[in-house]
Amino acid sequence: MRRFLLIPALMLCIVGSSFAQYVTITKDHQIPEVEDTIAFKNANTFGFEANGQGTVMEKEWDCSAVSYTGGGVKYWWEDANTTPEAATFPNANLAYANDQENGYFYYEYNAGSDTIYRAGVYSDETMWIEYDGGRVAEFVWPYTAGDNYSWDYTGDFAPFGAGEDSVKVESGSISVEADMQGTMTLPGGLVLNNILRIRVDETFDLVAYSGGIPLVSYNILDEFYYYYHDTIQGPVCIYGLTYMNGNEESEVLRFQPFDNPVAINAQQKTQMAIFPNPTNGIVNITNVESIEVYDAIGRLLLSKNKMSKQENIDLSSYENGVYYIRMQQNGKIKSERIVLEK
What we know:
The chain is mainly beta. The chain has one helix at residues 2-16, and strands at residues 24-25, 37-43, 58-62, 68-79, 94-98, 103-108, 115-123, 127-131, 136-140, 143-144, 148-158, 166-185, 191-210, 213-228, 237-244, 247-255, 273-275, 282-286, 290-294, 300-304, 310-314, 321-329, 332-340.
């Protein structure tokens, strides 16, 4: 009888071993739609470690010591055709705005595509950027750890200041790399596994000309890190540095405010999910019809049917160790390895 118990355990171990494989962020929750809104809280950088650019590796980002600074920013998507500069960016169908600036980033996305293109920028009637060729690829979904690509561009910029007759965007380049994966502990203590970090470096020169002669040039460099989880809309965390002519001009650190496990459900859509992992006993489960819990040798410890959209189970009566949770929803089955640490 024991050998039959080992069969489901081995099957679950195979599924559970995927945690040692490369993390993938699909486009399921990352393709924007009109009226999508995401709020971030600003945080200080005490206890935060960006670690620069690296090869794909397992990383633990412990941000539990990071505290919010009291401010924040809210982003939302609008129909580009309803915005003031729709005619300037005729191919754009999405406009990205926030409550800190008066303006839009314009984007082009075609249904079924994997790529989100940036079509241009317009801000408060004082600045706009148009790209030669009409667009720049900003994100190409899905991303798996190790993926990378780059995109070069040029364009026009206006206005700049007094005296110039044209300003050009020159030597523009976007470099994107999914360079790290791992576990992130958010401010407040919520732990998210299978985080994928996407580093985006963008650099360009703003060159003002008079009579075809360059008057002044500024080099802009944005070095940004986006931390994604496949069941959450938008990045969980954003860290970024902006440089002008090699001098640091600004630094930002923002988190989606998942101060408690229940709050994360507001950004989760329809995927089956369990968290936190590791757990000290209570496991939150979302979008699951039924579950089965097995120990490391395949013994069925718990089963539950007809579950609501958001429930939790208590594993605190079991010994510390590795367990496997088999979840089912709409005929789809997913198994996850979970660690109990009391």
